[in-house]
Each structure stands twice: as C-alpha cells, then as structure tokens.
Design goal:
Elements lengths: L1 H7 L22 H12 L9 H7 L7 E7 L6 E9 L15 E6 L23
Helix pairs in contact: 1-2
C-alpha cells in the first residue's frame, strides 16, 4: 500500500487527513519505500535538478517530484497543516529500511489546479467562507 501511495498517488474514499486529527506513525522497516521514492523521482521529466530553484528554472519538470504531505507535531502526531515538498534526486535516498529520507520544504500546499507549480489534483484544499 505504501508503494502505491508513493508511485501512483493511490487513495481510497476513507483516506482523509484533516488539520487537527491525529495521524499515527507506522513502524517497521520501509525498504520498499526507498525504491518507490526512486520510481516517483524517475516519473518526473526532470529527475536530475539538485534543488527546487533549478527545477523551476529548467521548466522541464512535470511536478512528480513535488508532493503534498501533512505537517504534524512529532510528540502528539496531531496534523497542523499541509506542506509542499520537493523530492531530491533518486541517488539521495539510501536503500535501507530505517534510513532518513528527506525532501525540501517549498511552501504551503498548493491549491489544486492552481497556475503555480505543485502536485495538482488530488491535493490540499483551502476553504474560505465569504459573506
């Protein structure tokens, strides 16, 4: 399931994450997740740019290296919001089950179908009530 979520953006109708909810962490080795990250980076038409500024400047990326993730409190696992993150080149990710896998924070999650770069639909939604 983790592999599907990383490589194909798989989700089911019950997979909803909201600000304020507790999102428990999942233990265990995640060796397959490393290869899924490599695959996700490889799905981008610009898999080589070393940083987000270069990625944007090249104009060749298709957005697969940009992901939206919940930002949560490390001690309570409460979700505070959503951020947009840029995946590094595949060689940056160690292929061991308990290695740290990092991405670069690029800002607040983009609104789906917005003209700016981002993960697009499905994604994070901002809702504003207007009188």
């Amino acid at each position: 399931m983790i592999r599907q979520r990383i490589t194909t953006d798989y989700h089911s109708d019950g997979d909803v994450v909201q600000v304020g909810m507790t999102l428990p962490r999942v233990g265990g080795a995640k060796t397959s997740a490393a290869s899924a990250l490599w695959e996700r980076v490889g799905q981008d038409s610009d898999a080589a740019s070393a940083d987000y500024a270069s990625y944007l400047a090249s104009g060749h990326g298709n957005g697969r290296r940009v992901v939206i993730m919940p930002v949560q409190d490390l001690s309570t696992s409460v979700v505070y919001g959503f951020g947009m993150f840029f995946l590094l080149p595949a060689a940056s990710y160690d292929h061991t089950g308990n290695a740290a896998w990092c991405a670069v924070y690029v800002g607040q999650a983009a609104i789906p179908n917005s003209p700016g770069p981002g993960a697009g639909t499905p994604g994070a939604y901002n809702i504003k009530l207007v009188e």
